[in-house]
Structure formats: structure tokens, C-alpha cells
Write a structure and sequence with these properties.
Layout lengths: L3 E7 L3 H12 L4 E4 L15 E2 L6 H18 L7 E2 L2 E5 L2 H16 L5 E4 H7 L10 E5 L3 E2 L2 H16 L2 E3 L4 E7 L2 E6 L4 E9 L2 H7 L1 H6 L2 E11 L10 E3 L1 H4 L3 H4 L4 H6 L6 H5 L4 E4 L5 E4 L3 E4 L12 H12 L9 E12 L5 E5 L3 E5 L5 H16 L8
Parallel strand pairs: 1-2, 1-12, 2-9, 5-14, 12-20
Antiparallel strand pairs: 3-8, 4-8, 5-7, 6-7, 10-11, 11-12, 13-16, 13-17, 13-18, 14-15, 15-16, 19-20
Helix pairs in contact: 1-5, 1-13, 2-13
GO molecular function: oxidoreductase activity
Cofactor: FAD
Keywords: Flavoprotein, Oxidoreductase
Length: about 400
């Protein structure tokens, strides 16, 4: 019975790990299998911002539940959560109008936010340029994480305190239903059995079900990001999102003025071409993470995006960032890109195979914010647990 589980979760990123968390919370015996020696995909290659404020109404509920869970875990075990809020900075009257409208929507949702005057923004955020900002909207409950370390700390917590079994270096080569159990086999002929198997990784989905993967509406987004050298005697609190974020994030799509404002934007700018919006977040070592860009390809043609960093994109982002915040240094110590899968026509990809195999992937940029809350509902659905409210 050592290799038999109520749930086998395939994929050790944030989505898979929180599916494991919630299965454990139901009192189930759970095994998480990860193809690599440690998680190193999109979960570790993102900004580390948990921003329900940027999500549409449906996903904000999941994001708010994620916030609660992150803070609850952090109170027991350090997983790098810092509650220092999120601010959106408007650069003109149109963006300021969208902030006013978003605040009204969130007042109706009982989600706290506060409008900041230009002067309050300048006082709160050192280096912010007076010729950029006109107003801000601050969400005090939101948090940041250190993405390159958080997932490892979270998994250690689940192993040490919740009884999770994890098998690393376990590339899944087959997933077969047979009676009561689903057999999950690795390339090394290791085998585990689950009453339910949940595949939460796009690469494993592609390997296991290539035809289904190829016919799906999954696409991938390549995001370039950078990290400055540590900033001397400089503190930038929380997540800083700017005018182009206001014009991009799904939450603002629900604002009455959004469609008209988007329709008047230039169609052939470099910002549009590369899908750029400018974000800032100070890491624990004092450096500042900058980004990001978005380039898209169908998931089965991911290679079309290439494997290089485009310096023209990075230089463009640095130039735009300098128009917003005067940092002590814009010297870059690290550059990287993340690859996220998402759906063209839905908010997440879900497919049930042979009743006991569930594919859940394509959460896109919602992963760090939405996975914890979404996984709670999805695990309850898969295991027919009592209906839960988010």
C-alpha cells in the first residue's frame, strides 16, 4: 500500500502544489510527482505578486481566498509572504478615471482600496517621478512572495507538517485507468497508484495526451523580466503597477470607460507589439524586479517564440521604467523569461479522462494569485466534498 494514494498530483508548480494542499486538508493520502529535481517552471519565473485586484470578478474571489491561505500558512511557517500592498499608478486622466471606476467596483465587493492623490503617491513611493503620476489606487491586503524560494518552502511545510509525499525526478510516461486505481508510471519504471490523478503541468499533459494537447486552445506567453543590483538606502514597498497595467489587467475590463479608452490607443506602438506593461517589485535583497513583456504562440508551436532574450525589448522596458521611477541604479544583475500556458477562449483548461484522470492547466498569469483559491474549489468538486463557499 505504500505506493497507493487517494490523490496523485502530477506537476510540482504552484497549481499542483495547492491541489495537493487542499487534498491533504480533506484528510486524503496524497502524492505529488514532479518531472524535475525541483520545481523550476513558471512558478519560479514570475514577479511574485499576489494581486486579486487585477482579476475579473470570478477570479478575484479565488485570489482573495488565496490571500487568506497564504497569510494563514505564513503565520505557521515562513514561505516568504510580505503584506505590503499593491498600488496602481495613473499617468493621465483616462487611467485615473479607470482607477475611480475600479475602486467603485471593489467597494461593491467589500474589497478594501484607497485612492491616493498625486502628492500621497510621491510621499509614499521614493523616486516616483512627479511628471509621470497623477493619482494612485492602493490595495492594502495584497502581498508579495519570493517566487524562486516560496514553492520550495511551501512544499517543505506540506511534507513536514501535513504528511505530503513528494517524488522528484519522476517524469510521467503513462497514466492508465484500471479498475479502482489509476497507474502513474515514470520513465524509470517507478509506479504510483491513485484513486484520482490530477495533471497540473502543461508539459506532462503534452507528453501523456499529445493529440488532445495539439487540438486544445492552449497558447503560451513568453514574458521577459529583469532584476537590478541591490538598491542602496532605497525602499520600495509592495507591488507597483503602472498606467499600462491599468490598460491591460482583466479587472479594468469591467470598468465602464475601459472599451472606449482602449479603442483610442495607438495600434502600432512598440508597447502593443511586445505586450509591455511596466511593473516594479523590490526583492528581499533590496534589488528591484522590472518587467514585463508578452509574446504569444500556439502551445504546440512554442518553439516559434525562440529561446533567446530580446535585448530590444529589455532596453525598451528600462527606458520606460526610467520615465516612472528614478532608482539609485538601473544596473541589471539578472535577466530571464518565463513561459506560461493559457487558454485562448476560456480562463483555464480542464478535461476529465476516464472519470478518474483530471487535466487542469493553462492558468496563465493567474497562477501565483489564483491557484490556492481555485484549487480549493476544484479539489472539493473532484472528491465530491461538501460544497464550499469562497
Amino acid at each position: 500500500m505504500d505506493n497507493k494514494y487517494d490523490a496523485v498530483i502530477v506537476g510540482g508548480g504552484i497549481l499542483g502544489t495547492f491541489h495537493a494542499y487542499h487534498a491533504l486538508e480533506l484528510g486524503l493520502k496524497v502524492c505529488l510527482v514532479e518531472k524535475d529535481a525541483y520545481p523550476k517552471g513558471a512558478t519560479t519565473q514570475n514577479f511574485g505578486q499576489v494581486v486579486p485586484s487585477g482579476m475579473n470578478t470570478k477570479w478575484q474571489k479565488f485570489g482573495r481566498e488565496s490571500l487568506r491561505l497564504y497569510k494563514e500558512i505564513q503565520s505557521q511557517f515562513d514561505i516568504s509572504i510580505r503584506q505590503n500592498g499593491t498600488v496602481y499608478l495613473a499617468s493621465n486622466e483616462e487611467e485615473e478615471q479607470l482607477l475611480v471606476e475600479l475602486r467603485a467596483i471593489n467597494n461593491g465587493n467589500d474589497y478594501p482600496s484607497k485612492m491616493l492623490t498625486k502628492q500621497q503617491c510621491l510621499e509614499r513611493y521614493p523616486g516616483l517621478r512627479s511628471d509621470y503620476v497623477t493619482a494612485g489606487l492602493f490595495f492594502p491586503d495584497e502581498v508579495t512572495v519570493e517566487p524562486r524560494t516560496m514553492i520550495h518552502k511551501l512544499q517543505k511545510y506540506l511534507v513536514d507538517q501535513k504528511g505530503l509525499h513528494i517524488k522528484f525526478d519522476f517524469p510521467v510516461v503513462s497514466c492508465e485507468s484500471g479498475g479502482e486505481w489509476v497507474s502513474v508510471q515514470s520513465t524509470k519504471n517507478e509506479e504510483v497508484y491513485g484513486k484520482k490523478v490530477i495533471v497540473c503541468n502543461g508539459a506532462d499533459f503534452k507528453n501523456l495526451y499529445p493529440e488532445m494537447f495539439a487540438s486544445s486552445d492552449l497558447e503560451v506567453s513568453k514574458l521577459q523580466m529583469m532584476q537590478t543590483k541591490p538598491q542602496k538606502d532605497f525602499e520600495l514597498k509592495g507591488s507597483i503597477l503602472t498606467g499600462w497595467s491599468i490598460r491591460r489587467y482583466e479587472a479594468f475590463h469591467e470598468c465602464p470607460s475601459f472599451a472606449k479608452i482602449k479603442a483610442s490607443e495607438p495600434k502600432d506602438s512598440l508597447q502593443k507589439k511586445w505586450g509591455v506593461h511596466i511593473l516594479f517589485k523590490q526583492a528581499a535583497d533590496g534589488s528591484v524586479i522590472l518587467g514585463d513583456s508578452h509574446q504569444y504562440a500556439d502551445a504546440h508551436k512554442m518553439e516559434d517564440l525562440g529561446y533567446d532574450l530580446d535585448m530590444d525589448i529589455d532596453n525598451f522596458m528600462i527606458g520606460e521604467a526610467k520615465k516612472i521611477i528614478d532608482l539609485p541604479t538601473y544596473q541589471i544583475q539578472k535577466r530571464w523569461y518565463g513561459i506560461y500556458s493559457q487558454c485562448k477562449n476560456s480562463d483555464i483548461f480542464q478535461k476529465t479522462i476516464d472519470r478518474n484522470i483530471h487535466v487542469v492547466t493553462g492558468i496563465g498569469g493567474k497562477g501565483m494569485t489564483g491557484s490556492a483559491g481555485f484549487s480549493k474549489k476544484n479539489i472539493a468538486t473532484i472528491f465530491n466534498a461538501q460544497k464550499i463557499n469562497l
